[in-house]
Write a structure and sequence with these properties.
Strand order of the largest sheet: 5-4-3-1-6-7-8
Distance between the termini: 90 Å
Strand content: 15-25%
Length: about 300
């Protein structure tokens, strides 16, 4: 009878261990159920300035418009609060570029906002961001790996962000791509659209309250007739504005045809540029060779950044 008693005792021990294991599992599941989901918002500021500027101000040139970053960030937070109704916000990550990674005054003010972390890549001589995509990947992957977030709202459009999405998804996080309505075509890479868990696009009405055109600076000099003369920077700025409109109306094929002639413009384009600039400036540029050079410089500078 001893062997049978041993079997009964072993069976009882196994039953006890199973009950303990089930009890522990139930407590873990109950604790997990009480733990709220967490989301974070990752903003590629370069994409936002370019896409929102073109949509709401007609230009991607940051010098041409003001962006109410505080108001826009709050709008993103409100939108996330609606979409992720049962989730809490970890923070907003704001990725931008700066020369030698030194905060500008605007970036400092953004960094001081509650629940916002500013992360800076470098800005090269052509005002192009470097290292931002790798920062986004590093943060996304780290937060997902440590289970700090369950959902990530990613606002950007670069194909290089695909690896960041894959890294986060590999640790179980869901990545939701938020975009800005494109004036024409698309402003987000297709491979990125394919990789994310969901997509959402914000239209012009969403951005209108946060984007406003800048006015020309105060005229500091006068011409021989005593008329206030615009500063060279103002004229250069107008040239960039006109270039943005010109490119939007004609497309990149026209740009490719124009570039070989740099720094000279075809007569018809040069005349169109002059007429449009005089309307915007309310000032005649006839006989103002230095200002006309500044106008062409601004026109070319904007076009070259788009090539």
């Amino acid at each position: 009878m001893a062997p049978m008693n041993d079997e009964i005792e072993i069976s009882a021990q196994i039953s006890t261990q199973l009950e303990r294991a089930n009890g522990l599992l139930e407590r873990v599941l109950a604790e997990v159920a009480k733990t709220p989901s967490t989301h974070a918002i990752f903003v590629d500021a370069g994409y936002v300035y370019a896409a929102a500027g073109r949509l709401a101000a007609g230009t991607e040139d940051r010098r041409a418009f003001d962006l109410d970053a505080e108001g826009l960030i709050e709008a993103f937070i409100d939108k996330a609060r609606t979409i992720f109704a049962d989730s809490r916000l970890l923070r907003v990550y704001w990725y931008d570029g700066a020369r030698r990674r030194i905060h500008t005054v605007e970036q400092q003010s953004i960094a001081e906002l509650p629940d916002v972390k500013v992360r800076l890549g470098n800005l090269n001589a052509n005002n192009q961001q470097k290292g931002v995509d790798s920062l986004i990947r590093s943060d996304l992957e780290s937060l997902a790996r440590h289970r700090a977030i369950s959902d990530a709202a990613l606002i950007g459009g670069d194909e290089d962000l695909v690896s960041a999405v894959e890294a986060a998804q590999g640790y179980g996080a869901r990545v939701h791509l938020w975009g800005i309505e494109a004036v024409e075509g698309r402003n987000q890479a297709e491979p990125l659209l394919w990789e994310v868990d969901s997509q959402r696009t914000f239209d012009l009405d969403f951005f209108k309250p946060y984007v406003s055109r800048r006015t020309l600076s105060t005229y500091a000099t006068y011409d021989t007739a005593g008329t206030p003369r615009p500063a060279r920077d103002d004229v250069r700025f107008v040239g960039a504005q006109i270039a943005a409109k010109w490119l939007a109306a004609r497309g990149r094929e026209a740009l490719v045809d124009l570039l070989p002639g740099h720094p000279y413009l075809p007569g018809s384009v040069d005349q169109e540029l002059l007429v449009e600039a005089e309307k915007l400036l309310a000032y005649s540029l006839r006989g103002q060779s230095d200002l006309r050079r500044a106008l062409r410089d601004g026109f070319w500078e904007h076009l070259q950044t788009q090539y």
